């Protein structure tokens, strides 16, 4: 069969989302961010909200998220994305507004902004990528780092006596009256990706329906920070992260 | 038609002016001596009249970042606080300057350092005009000396902020915030429509419409050559502001042999000092910088050729006096007189200081 024959709309099984541009991603091989970016791009396009979506990117590995998705963005100071998104949405209620944050951004330096935006029930989506480590700065301990898990600032493993417990911020957010959806997903298999996309779409729909704050936590890998191959990182995540951060809906108000 | 004269506090005037100047959003956190701004806005409920959003944030940090969010979408937004709260806002202020976002900040100063006191002070001059946050940036700084100017500078501050895509700040103090005076409030301006915002702020993150590139509000640039270009662009803008936006007021300066330099509430006290001095035969004038940045250095430099000495009168340990000395450049004697920690000087104290520090020597 000629190439021209193959490239026909009826043969199309997969394509890059239209909102994703040609900029080469800076993410490491095996990183979960790329897949999560793709899902956001697909959901925005599926909803036909390309011209009405405003993203708020964090400080962390996803600081340059604005380089990959062709929508309007605001780049936040570290941890402040939910405060920024609060004003963007309140002043532009017809727009679809989301933050994209890592565990250090959302659950350490930005805990106050996260809790209070969620507690006010801001009609925004919080996309939370939890890989239990500070990836961008080179693999330091995060609030979500598991007990015994080594990082560059807990080289002998997280010691509870010294560093306290890993923070289940998702469970905390689910307790707040302002959240309508808090769900924990992953993207390491095709089935997981499909399920995650469904929940992401629900979150964005909630934000436009004025139901309150939706949080989609992605339990993710950081093969560079964890110092593992992408394949090993996925396996390690399933064996170690999932038992402590079990997948599924923590809250799903109908 | 008779003017609509009202009697109110400076803080209340700020709130009423914000509604009337068509502000889209105010984000604040309570702190003495400026809480009446948020209280007045909440009592007025402008969301039911002009559509203005008013929100009490969980912290000053959150409030300034809400300003960043609103300003990034091209809206007219503002926040207010007092000294310790303004310290907390410095991170956000630096980001606003770095992303070139227009907005209005109000600091109703109190005595520091630390938690300090709730009494009035002017000790945040350095913080405001010399930086405060990190990086090479400037804030357009307006210093009101009356309740009327509290109201007027809301409009002026926003006008300048949008003219230059730069944060502007009203640097008031506890006296101006708390005292009641007559004020003529501005007429109601309607808030801009979405179309007007897009026309005025084509850079705003308003949702990417077909046919244009994405608008990204950011202060981040990892390539040092580009980051230097950004900084050079900021500096060129600051030079333009210095050239065009200097504002000051002269009070009995024409025949003056000595000058007081004072801003805000200090300038009000110094008006009395000038009257008292002239009653004693001392030819004293007062120069009141209205913009603290850009600082009226050229006019002060010119007066250095006409007068014998200058006294910089401030409610601090000597901050603006450094800028006065830079302008005068050693030509004549420049001294500072101030009270600290929330104590306000009397006209007699100032006149005595003038005699001791400038006239006798």
Automatic annotation (TrEMBL), chain A:
<dbReference type="GO" id="GO:0016625">
    <property type="term" value="F:oxidoreductase activity, acting on the aldehyde or oxo group of donors, iron-sulfur protein as acceptor"/>
</dbReference>
<dbReference type="GO" id="GO:0045333">
    <property type="term" value="P:cellular respiration"/>
</dbReference>
<dbReference type="InterPro" id="IPR011766">
    <property type="entry name" value="TPP_enzyme_TPP-bd"/>
</dbReference>
<dbReference type="InterPro" id="IPR029061">
    <property type="entry name" value="THDP-binding"/>
</dbReference>
<dbReference type="InterPro" id="IPR051457">
    <property type="entry name" value="2-oxoacid:Fd_oxidoreductase"/>
</dbReference>
<dbReference type="GO" id="GO:0044281">
    <property type="term" value="P:small molecule metabolic process"/>
</dbReference>
<protein>
    <submittedName>
        <fullName>2-oxoglutarate oxidoreductase</fullName>
    </submittedName>
</protein>
<dbReference type="Pfam" id="PF02775">
    <property type="entry name" value="TPP_enzyme_C"/>
</dbReference>
<dbReference type="GO" id="GO:0030976">
    <property type="term" value="F:thiamine pyrophosphate binding"/>
</dbReference>
<keyword id="KW-0560">Oxidoreductase</keyword>
<feature type="domain" description="Thiamine pyrophosphate enzyme TPP-binding">
    <location>
        <begin position="67"/>
        <end position="217"/>
    </location>
</feature>
TrEMBL record, chain B:
<dbReference type="InterPro" id="IPR052368">
    <property type="entry name" value="2-oxoacid_oxidoreductase"/>
</dbReference>
<dbReference type="Pfam" id="PF17147">
    <property type="entry name" value="PFOR_II"/>
</dbReference>
<feature type="domain" description="Pyruvate flavodoxin/ferredoxin oxidoreductase pyrimidine binding">
    <location>
        <begin position="16"/>
        <end position="189"/>
    </location>
</feature>
<dbReference type="InterPro" id="IPR009014">
    <property type="entry name" value="Transketo_C/PFOR_II"/>
</dbReference>
<dbReference type="InterPro" id="IPR029061">
    <property type="entry name" value="THDP-binding"/>
</dbReference>
<dbReference type="InterPro" id="IPR002880">
    <property type="entry name" value="Pyrv_Fd/Flavodoxin_OxRdtase_N"/>
</dbReference>
<keyword id="KW-0560">Oxidoreductase</keyword>
<protein>
    <submittedName>
        <fullName>3-methyl-2-oxobutanoate dehydrogenase subunit VorB</fullName>
    </submittedName>
</protein>
<feature type="domain" description="Pyruvate:ferredoxin oxidoreductase core">
    <location>
        <begin position="256"/>
        <end position="350"/>
    </location>
</feature>
<dbReference type="GO" id="GO:0016491">
    <property type="term" value="F:oxidoreductase activity"/>
</dbReference>
<dbReference type="Pfam" id="PF01855">
    <property type="entry name" value="POR_N"/>
</dbReference>
<dbReference type="InterPro" id="IPR033412">
    <property type="entry name" value="PFOR_II"/>
</dbReference>
């Amino acid at each position: 069969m000629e190439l021209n024959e193959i490239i026909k709309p009826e043969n199309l099984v997969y394509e890059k989302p239209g909102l994703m541009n040609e900029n080469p991603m800076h993410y490491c091989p095996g990183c979960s961010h790329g897949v999560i970016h793709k899902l956001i791009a697909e959901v925005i396009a599926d909803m036909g909200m390309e011209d009405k979506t405003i993203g708020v990117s964090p400080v962390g590995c996803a600081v340059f998220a604005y380089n990959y998705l062709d929508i309007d963005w605001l780049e936040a100071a570290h941890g402040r994305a939910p405060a920024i998104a609060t004003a963007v949405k309140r002043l532009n209620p017809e727009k679809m507004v989301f933050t994209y944050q890592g565990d250090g951004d959302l659950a350490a330096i930005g805990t106050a902004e996260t809790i209070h935006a969620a507690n006010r029930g801001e009609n925004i989506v919080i996309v939370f990528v939890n890989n239990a480590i500070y990836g961008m700065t080179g693999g330091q301990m995060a609030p979500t780092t598991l007990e015994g898990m080594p990082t560059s600032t807990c080289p002998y493993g997280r010691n509870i006596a010294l560093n306290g417990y890993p923070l289940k911020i998702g469970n905390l957010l689910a307790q707040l009256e302002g959240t309508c959806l808090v769900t924990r997903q992953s993207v390491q298999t095709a089935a997981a990706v499909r399920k995650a996309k469904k929940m992401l779409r629900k979150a964005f729909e909630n934000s436009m329906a004025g139901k309150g704050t939706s949080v989609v936590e992605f339990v993710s890998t950081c093969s560079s920070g964890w110092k593992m191959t992408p394949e090993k990182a996925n396996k390690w995540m399933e064996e170690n992260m999932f038992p402590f951060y079990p997948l599924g809906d923590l809250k799903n108000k109908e | 038609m008779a003017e609509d004269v009202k009697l109110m506090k400076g803080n209340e005037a700020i709130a009423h002016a914000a509604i009337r100047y068509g502000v889209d959003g105010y984000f604040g956190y309570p702190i003495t001596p400026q809480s009446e701004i948020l209280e007045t806005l909440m009592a007025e409920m402008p969301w039911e009249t002009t559509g203005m959003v008013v929100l009490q944030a969980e912290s000053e940090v959150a409030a300034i970042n809400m300003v960043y969010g609103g300003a990034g979408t091209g809206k007219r937004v503002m926040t207010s606080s007092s000294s310790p709260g303004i310290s907390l806002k410095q991170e956000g202020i630096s980001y606003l300057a770095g992303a070139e976002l227009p907005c209005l900040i109000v600091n109703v100063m109190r005595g520091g350092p630390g938690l300090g006191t709730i009494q009035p002070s002017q000790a945040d001059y350095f913080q405001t005009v010399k930086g405060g946050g990190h990086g090479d940036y400037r804030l357009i700084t307006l210093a009101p000396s009356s309740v009327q100017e509290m109201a007027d500078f809301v409009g002026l501050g926003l006008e300048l902020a949008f003219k230059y895509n730069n944060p502007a700040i009203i640097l008031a103090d506890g006296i101006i915030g708390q005292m009641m005076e007559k004020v003529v409030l501005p007429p109601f301006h309607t808030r801009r429509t979405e179309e007007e915002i897009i026309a005025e702020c084509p850079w705003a993150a308003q949702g990417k419409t077909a046919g244009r590139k994405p608008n990204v509000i950011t202060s981040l640039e990892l390539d040092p050559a580009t980051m230097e270009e950004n900084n050079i662009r900021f500096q060129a803008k600051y030079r333009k502001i210095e050239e065009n936006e200097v504002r000051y007021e002269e009070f009995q300066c024409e025949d003056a042999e000595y000058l007081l330099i004072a801003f805000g509430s200090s300038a009000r006290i110094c008006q009395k000092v000038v009257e008292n001095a002239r009653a004693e035969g001392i030819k004293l004038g007062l120069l009141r910088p209205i913009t603290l940045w850009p600082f009226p250095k050229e006019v002060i430099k010119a007066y250095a050729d006409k007068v014998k000495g200058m006294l910089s009168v401030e409610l601090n340990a000597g901050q603006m006096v450094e800028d006065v000395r830079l302008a005068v450049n050693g030509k004549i004697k420049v001294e500072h007189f101030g009270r600290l920690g929330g104590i306000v000087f009397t006209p007699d104290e100032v006149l005595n200081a003038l005699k001791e520090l400038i006239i006798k020597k």
